[in-house]
Amino acid sequence: MIPHKPPSHAYIKSCLTPSKFPGCQKNFRCRYTTATAMLQELLSGLADQSLEAKPKRFLAPEMLLIDEVGFDRLEQHDAKNANLFHKVIDGCYCKGSTIVTTNIDFEALGDYLGDPVITAATVDRMVHHSIIINIEGPSWPPAARVATAKRQAVAPPLKT
Asked: Cβ distance 135 to 4 under 8 Å?
């Protein structure tokens, strides 16, 4: 598990593509998803009575990459989201590699996922036998916008 505060969402997202991971390059089965997309798929399983099959799609790969935990408000709607997220993390626990990215501290995840008790159990599983990388720094996209604006400001106007 790699919970972190990303300095560059675009950079982290490009690094999270399965083709960048050595295991995925060696034909290990990998799946990339955002937390929102995963929860939407699981919630659709609740709606159409196919929930039993939905988590298996996330548990089958040898490496699961869950990006943007806490990024979208969908995760904060109610406690069933925490239960669904826990179902996936618990299913992956000690069975394969799971990478989770978030800009939320572990202590605050309960508020984001809707149920502090279930979230505590989820965090316990995420941090057990894991490597945690905490990256601190400014977000890259605003910095890139400033740099681009500065380059455009000093660039001579195009001749028409």
From this structure: yes
Q: Residues 33-75: pLDDT tens digits?
A: 999 899 999 999 988 988 888 888 999 999 999 998 887 766 6
With a CB cutoff of 8 Å and minimum separation 6, the contacts of 62 are: 23, 28, 29, 30, 96, 97
pTM: 0.73
- CA 63-66-71 angle, to 5 degrees, is 170
Q: Which CATH superfamily is domain 9-154 in?
A: P-loop containing nucleotide triphosphate hydrolases (3.40.50.300)
